[in-house]
Amino acid sequence: MLRLTNVSKVFGGITAVDNCSFEVGRSSITALIGPNGAGKSTIFQLITGVEALDKGVIELDGMSIVHLPVHKRAKRGISRTFQATRVFKNLTLRESFYLAVRNGDDGLGRMWETEHSEHRFEETLAEVGLEKTLHALGDELSYGQKKLFALAMAFLFPHTLLMLDEPVAGVNPVLREQIIHILLRRRAHTGDTVFIIEHDIEFIRNLADKVIVMDAGEVIAEGEPRDVLNDPRVIKSYLGEQV
Ligand SMILES: Nc1ncnc2c1ncn2[C@@H]1O[C@H](COP(=O)(O)OP(=O)(O)OP(=O)(O)O)[C@@H](O)[C@H]1O
Ligand SMILES: [Mg+2]
């Protein structure tokens, strides 16, 4: 459903993304991994249109989206979370939700549909296990709860492609397992395509159908987790040593 062909992006003198090509299949859970600075989050910025690419093509459902602004790409069915999780400190979760709906966009210029009722909001909070925090202030959430809230908001935005930038970074192993179940259950129910950046190899092993590995802006491996995660080049790029 998503295809990148020869995509490049240079920031000043740094080639963040270097001629990358890969596909994310419909209803797959595809993981994008690689060392810090490999260019993973930049790939997300290029797909969502937050950054403009220098070269290449990005297609969603067979049509190029590179000429579209951020909100039009979102309307085509892309919902995402960011690597740095931010919530409104002095608003309750319910107020944050209504602010997003009433403002008509989610801060990225993406329009919310009016179909987002309170009921769906509560249902989605329950889906991620946050049903008791409807009236909690953003500031009162733990780090892990903030990650779950960001996930719930991404679920709520109408989409077919869900892009998650490090959804379990810094969360404890129990919550990590919960998030695996939440995502697997969701994919089974909705058929969502999930494209996920993550450093946690166990998480990827238990969740992903396909893994794409980047290093220094390039795709260095892709395939099924059991093959890719045992590939000596991948181990070397992660551990920085000969194997
Ligand atoms: N807006 C920007 N301006 C300048 N340089 C940038 C910008 N965004 C990213 N870069 C650079 O591009 C390279 C890739 O960054 P990116 O954030 O995509 O890496 P990443 O793979 O997501 O890393 P991490 O695992 O640490 O999140 C880095 O060298 C980074 O400093
Ligand atoms: Mg990143």
What would the keywords be for this entry?
alpha/beta, Rossmann fold, binds adenosine-5'-triphosphate, 243 residues, six-stranded mixed sheet, binds magnesium ion
Question: Could you explain how this protein is built, in words?
Answer:
- The chain has 243 residues and is an alpha/beta fold.
- It has a single domain (2-239), classed as P-loop containing nucleotide triphosphate hydrolases (Rossmann fold, 3-Layer(aba) Sandwich).
- Helices cover 36% and strands 24% of the residues.
- It contains nine helices and ten strands.
- The strands form two sheets. It has a six-stranded mixed beta sheet, sandwiched between helices. A four-stranded antiparallel beta sheet has the order 2-1-4-5, with helices on one face.
- A hairpin with a 2-residue loop joins strand 9 (210-215) and strand 10 (218-223).
- Helix 4 (118-127) packs across helix 5.
- The relative contact order is 0.18.
- Bound molecules: adenosine-5'-triphosphate and magnesium ion.
Outline of the structure:
36% of the residues lie in helices and 24% in strands. With 243 residues, the protein is an alpha/beta fold.
